[in-house]
């Protein structure tokens, strides 16, 4: 067991507890078999949620200079990114629907105007 502070914000998948960067936890270090980066061994770190004691595993991603949550939780920034992407996608979809509805109503107006102009008064 290694007493360490969390290197990133993590949300527990079990109880949705948010653990901020710098929270004190006890890591258990394990070798990741077959993974090295420029000759250096990669380690996986396991720790328990501070609220429900569910196990969470993270490992370093040296190519991107950050950590990746492997199981038991989600990176809080990643969760925010996903929510933002979903919101943008929904906004785009709504805008497309409104644009389509506007075009359709304009087309109906044009057709009605053409029909009224083509009718000759008696």
From TrEMBL:
InterPro entries for this protein: Saf4/Yju2 (IPR007590)
Top-level taxon of the source organism: Eukaryota
GO terms under biological process: mRNA splicing, via spliceosome
Organism whose genome encodes this protein: Trema orientale (Charcoal tree)
A single GO cellular-component term on record: U2-type catalytic step 1 spliceosome
Protein name as catalogued: CWC16 protein
